[in-house]
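Possible regression after last week's pipeline update?

I re-ran a chain I had predicted before the update to compare outputs. Posting the input and the new output here so someone can diff against the archived version. Not blocking, just want to make sure nothing changed silently.
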Amino acid sequence: MEILLIFLSLIVRSSQLTLNECGTEARRPEISDIAVKCGTSSIDLAIEICPVIYTGFNETLLILNHMLDPVCRATLDDSVMPPVARFNFPLNMTHACGSIFRTTSAAGTGIFSDFSNIQTVNISGVVRSIDPTTGTITYNAELKYYYSCAYPLEYLVNNTQIDVSASSISIKDNNGSFISTLSMELFSDANYTKPMVIPQLGIELRTSVYVEVKATNLTGQYHVLLDRCYASISPLPSNSSFFNLFVPCSKDRFTTMIENGDSQSARFRFPAFRFIEQQNETVSTYYLHCITRLCERSTCSTFKQCSSRRKRSTLDTTAGITKTYTITSPEIVTKADSIESKEKPLLADEEDDSAVGLGVAVGILAFACIIALSVAAIFYKRLRN
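New output (post-update):
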């Protein structure tokens, strides 16, 4: 009885959009009446309100996952046509208005085909109508609007792009992305407090570069785990020259992993290097790319085991990419100075002086040979006499 009184009071306070005001939008509900937007930090639902009113309800009688919390209630938006009832709730297990979180695993495809276990979290729920009718029977049909958002937990993060694998989208069952919550930043100190400033002429070779891939505004259910990071001379993942800083179960001997899969930040460092094919350029410019996994805290350790991964020497970076997103980390530029010989090259006038000196030396040597032959001939005649 108390709940019923609450609903009746809400009806009084509602905007009371009438059936006549709906006009041609007044009709029976259809499966396409709900639109779902799977955002990076929240989920938005929009339900056409006129079919709801036609059935005998209004926005105050639409309840999300049986939650009566005011922050989980619908608000009427009659500034659009057709008018809609809107719900908005955050992607947080403790504040998601009763939504169900379910994580599934499958073999990677496209750009993630190197990995045998790619996780996806599905967030779902239902909006139901509550019938205020008292008594034994009612003439109002029950309304149910189901929603679902699928978020892949594997991303390609680099200093200019975040590429997400392709997936289909439908009206009620949408695919979202946590991409805006991921960022990569370079630091110059081991405490990760001084962002790296790269001068126009580049940083010195062997300078320590500290890298952090961080998730922000993300539910504490997930940690950041780097699956692979590599450098390439192209700002986009492509078939250009690349160098693996680390791949599953293996890393370059100069790369040091500091933190990976233990929190919402992953960190490593490496000494600055240059690409040999850029040896004729003043500086060597390249970009970092990291394939990043958002793993559930309880399962992150399993992804660190080599037995659960597949290794390949190359990465297919052309398949399975539908859109790119820019982040702010800078390119890496290193000095490409070569060590020159201290001996100066001969100049034109020095070459002429050398030629004259060589001619004099040859003349003296020839004269000495003639004298030696004459002396030998004289001694030979005396010996015969």
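Follow-up from reviewer: compared with the archived run. Residues 156 and 334 are 24 Å apart (CA to CA). Marking as no regression found.
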